[in-house]
Amino acid sequence: MITTARERSLDSLAADAITRYPLRKPSASFIRHNENLTYHIIDEENRQKYLLRIHKAAFASMTGIQHTRPALEAEMGLLHELKSTTGLHVQIPVRNLSGDWVTVCFSESGEEICCTLLEWIEGRDIQQGEQLTTEQIYDLGVQMQTLHQYGRAQDTHETTGEGSEAEVNRTSRTEVRPSYGSIEENLNMLRQLEEGTRLGIFTPEDFELIHETFENINKQLEAYPLRPETWGVIHGDITRGNLLVTEQGISMIDFCLYGYGYYLFDAAGAALIVSGEERDIFLSGYTKQTAPLTEQEIRLMEGFMLIFTFGYFAFQMANESRHAWMKDRMPKLCSKYCRPYVENRSIFYEL
Hints:
- By secondary structure, the chain is of the alpha+beta class.
- The chain has helices at 5-18, 69-85, 134-158, 164-174, 183-198, 204-222, 263-271, 279-286, 295-315, 323-342, and strands spanning 26-33, 37-43, 48-54, 93-94, 103-106, 112-119, 124-125, 179-180, 231-234, 243-246, 249-252, 259-262.
- It has 2 domains: 5-120, 2-Layer Sandwich (Phosphorylase Kinase, domain 1); 125-342, Alpha-Beta Complex (Aminoglycoside 3'-phosphotransferase, Chain: A, domain 2), CATH 3.90.1200.
- Strands 1, 2, 3, 4, 5 and 6 form a 6-stranded antiparallel beta sheet that branches.
- Helix 7 (263-271) crosses helix 9 (295-315).
């Protein structure tokens, strides 16, 4: 097999990173290169399996605060805490030979690149078109609520003040990890999407409707309280690709984009995984330990479902291979979902 110089360079990074961990006879196989470069590692001596992540994105637009050492240390700490305190079946971080969760390697050009190692979870990906069972959908809702309840507990302990003092605490955390769904974040995403009109991917008419949709959502956020019960630790990237079917049930994986945001944003992403007629099953699991969602919350969740969808477009803006797909998809997204949404018609069971 012919490999490029870039591929050989990335493979050498993986080989270097492996030597920093307590592995006796490791072998590595490439998985994918997206927001991270990932390898499946097997220690041939004891058959233990791991996931090696080299935190170098495939495209510049995918690079963010989540790739920095402080952010990765926070992610490893979160996974450790979730495994220890919640019972969620998440990937367990592995410390390197120096006792650190984050390993720093250097590329051939001298660029500093962070790497992390996680214990492998045995399971399978959800197949294209696969319909989850009622039990799996309900369990996903329960797990989302478990994660958010953890976030609420942490936010209650860490947010000791009200008003400006509470805002300072929130700001300090979002300086380390990404934030999602806020008015500021939505406006930033809108600016990214505007680039699509300059590139000829989106029509000016569609972008005008997108702009109106974002304005509608942000007006709702102005009236929605930002407090520990509504905002805190979220996964941030709940998609079918970040769920595994295991013997223990559905497992949430890939917390690389975890951050802080409205819990309804996370729930919106999870709701998009299942069909419209199955969303009440998800909600019944999600609200098992809480009150049912209000009409206001369902309406805002619909907005976040749109934000979550637009987020993929913004994330892939630098990926020219997706431009044709986006150009074809955007008119349908605008006419079928954005238009009724700004006209105050429900899309919760349609999107």
